[in-house]
Amino acid sequence: MTMDSVDVTVSEKLAGAWRQHPVLLRGAAQHLLGSQRSYEWFDELLARTAGVPGVDVHRRDGEVTFIEQASLGDGELAARAAAVARIAGVPSAWCDVIRTYVKSGIGSHFDHSDNLVIQQQGVKSWRLSPPDSLSKDTVVARYRGDEGVGGAEIDPSTVIEYDLEPGDVMYIPLMWIHEGVGQTDDSLSISIVCPVVTAYTAVMAGVAAALRQIDALHRPLEPMASWMEDGARERAEQRLALVTGKVLEKLTESSSQEYMAQVQRRRYLS
Ligand SMILES: [Fe+2]
């Protein structure tokens, strides 16, 4: 494979499972990542990505080290993630890298992203269950990005179990509850994370871009200072309400809607 494409068989298997159910692709890691990464590679990556903007390192000393968005500091991982983003039709994807030193896990949870877990070293046991057991409010809160939402128990009546060995790939669909526990002390895995695009994200991007085009909005608001007399403050508030109303009206015009659709197509749909 080249770095701008994903092996056809892997693509087909992912297409059959995407947003439907998890899938285990034995030995497919090479198709997504090329060579198998070693613990030495991880140590070198950790040193190289230290201080790179956007890369976050979370660690429990002697247990686990998690490099979030490691692909921001590694061109090849970035290219591999971009290849997956292209076939999945998402605007971007990144790689997290997880190294364990004891048989640990981070507890069962669900993510608002589609994830490909690519085992590189060691063995991990995974349990997954569909999002049906989550309440509607919880699902909305997760998509909205509310703090502290994401933990959930696996539903034992619908659980799917996989053991991931070096070279294996597991697809976890959006919002599926999952938990991975090491079977070996040492392990290394790379996750390709495809964050969800919600209708809110796409609508807001179109609206923001359209508003940016309106010259009349790029001026200071009248002051609301404490020393202003009440009448002046009230008039300023009324003028802001009027402008807001006019702008919302303008957004309903067909020229604005075409512009917003163009922005959305460019960012999220092509
Ligand atoms: Fe996760």
What would your notes on this structure say?
This protein has 270 residues and is of the alpha+beta class. The chain has helices spanning 8-17, 29-33, 39-49, 75-88, 136-144, 199-212, 230-251, 254-269; strands at 23-25, 56-60, 64-68, 94-100, 113-121, 124-129, 160-164, 169-172, 177-182, 187-195. Strands 1-8-5-10-4-3-2 form a 7-stranded antiparallel sheet. Strands 7-6-9 form a 3-stranded antiparallel sheet, with no helix packed on it. Helix 6 crosses helix 8. The protein is elongated. The mean pLDDT is 93. It binds fe (ii) ion.
Task: Please summarize what this structure is.
The protein has eight helices and ten strands. By secondary structure, the protein is α+β, with helices and mostly antiparallel strands.
What tags apply to this protein structure?
alpha+beta, 8 helices, 270 residues, seven-stranded antiparallel sheet, JmjC domain-containing protein, 2 domains, Jelly Rolls, binds fe (ii) ion, three-stranded antiparallel sheet, JmjC_dom
With helices defined by DSSP (H or I, 4 residues minimum), what is the helix count?
Answer: 8
Q: End-to-end distance, in Å?
A: 23 Å
CATH H-level superfamily of the largest domain: Cupin
Kindly give the count of domains: 2
CATH class of the largest domain: Mainly Beta
Number of strands: 10
Question: What's the CATH topology label of the largest domain?
Answer: Jelly Rolls
CATH architecture of the largest domain: Sandwich
